[in-house]
């Protein structure tokens, strides 16, 4: 009883720090699992597993990871949520905002691509993996990546490192979230890094504006789905 009273008197930020110390080991496991699930397609190619078995493994790992990330994200918000992140009802204003983000994203990528003369190493790797495991890669690109990456780079990252509701704090959250997202996809200083960071900044802006992780997940998934049209066509042609 006395311990509960003491915890009630602690500042919210202190409770988060205490909770994070106790869950440090779990967080390490989650990130290891994240990198493992994103690299799963490499493993079947070595052991000769077919696309369907690989997809089944991918789905199981994804469900486990998504479950733990969602629990972690919700706990964070329940302890301390100065920005008011949660569920935001869709309305006309949000629809217009999402459409405007799409056109801004499209225009800026066209501008960047005018100066690019090579393909990012990340895309080359995905293309190579798609040749042997097209269905698994499509699932990974369109479903796994948007949910897992948004929960980590936007959801948990925002409330863990930038949990003050100020203009400067929000700008820094969007900037560093997008930059780290870009570096995870393209570690070299190049236009490809700028392109991936731009995507991260768009996703982060959507999350910050809507206050709802579902909108950034949806936009991220839509973005990846459009980019996967050639892969989808190749799958239907092979059927």
Low-pLDDT regions = 2-8
State the secondary-structure class. mainly alpha
Fraction of helical residues: over 70%
Quick one: how many beta strands?
Answer: 0
Averaged pLDDT: 83
Tally of helical segments = 12
Structure, explained:
It is a single chain. 81% of the residues lie in helices and 0% in strands. With 239 residues, the protein is mainly α. It has one domain. The longest helix is centred in the first third of the chain and has 29 residues, at 51-79. The model is unreliable at 2-8 (pLDDT under 50).
What is the topological layout?
Blueprint: H1 2-8, H2 12-22, H3 24-38, H4 42-47, H5 51-79, H6 92-113, H7 121-132, H8 134-161, H9 167-185, H10 191-210, H11 213-227, H12 229-238
Concise description?
With 239 residues, the chain is mainly alpha-helical. The chain has helices at residues 2-8, 12-22, 24-38, 42-47, 51-79, 92-113, 121-132, 134-161, 167-185, 191-210, 213-227, 229-238. It has one domain (2-238).
